Amino acid sequence: MQIEFPGLFDLQVNGFGGVDFNNPFVTTEDVLHAIRTMRTTGVTRFLPTLITSSIERFSGCAATLTRIQHPAIIGIHMEGPYISPEDGPRGAHPREQVVEASVDDFLRRQEAARGQIKLVTLAPEVPGAIRLIEHLVESGIQVAIGHTAASPEQIRDAVKAGATLSTHLGNGCANSLPRHPNFIWEQLATDGLFASLIVDGHHLPSATVKAMIRAKTAERIFLVTDVVAAAGCVPGTYELNGEQVVLSEDGRVSRPGKPWLAGSAITLDQAVANTVKFTGLPLAEILPMASSQPAKYLGVPTSGQVAADWDAVECRLSNLKVSDP
User: Which is catalytic among the residues 226, 250, 269, 324?
Assistant: First the structure.
């Protein structure tokens, strides 16, 4: 069956097509190559995501991304460095670059990004986080909770200060948590929080995806990829933020010899198809999670239209063709 839908919108893209946005030596042509390659998967707008790093490395990466001024790039998602330093919650972010939250540090990074940071992911328990959330909200910047070991009370404080999103809920946290209360339940129960999910079959089991969407409701869910340079490429070794990551044959991305995930390699059209398969919800209910809902969250329209073939039996999108207005 042939279908049409608005261009897809990904809030979390670390790289694509062999290109790592977290490499300060990436060129304009490299980024344009990543955009062209991503477009074949139906993504017409996205937030390049810069993870925890020094101000110098961040500045170098942000300079290239903001210089391009491509209509597909809506701004920058800054994920860290104001996150938990603990193993587990920190994920693949470098511990030596994790810092306390401060308005001054953010302002230096925002200046380096030419005012284009649109979304910040941080951990509410980090010293200075609540004050920074208040500043970001006053500045019209969206705030997400992620890579955290916060208590439920700290989650509530962050929401009260203005946080509105849970970044890749269920990931960026310790492997073991109290049954209840814990910060996952707290975020699921908070109507004021949207939630982004990585539906690649590695970050979250299918039953967890189904339960989280039921809890949050479909209207409060955004599908993201959190892809690294390995996306759109064959299995092998790639780079993320100056470190090697390995894409395995089964599509899992991790650091060599480490147990935790380091982003993903799934494409957003595949994430849409997986979500239909995992939840049993109709495609028409899932597609907005990867297009109009994240776009509305950032206050921008979607871009272009995508025509594709949909196999409802296999839950697969194919032959994607993007047209612009």
Answer: 226
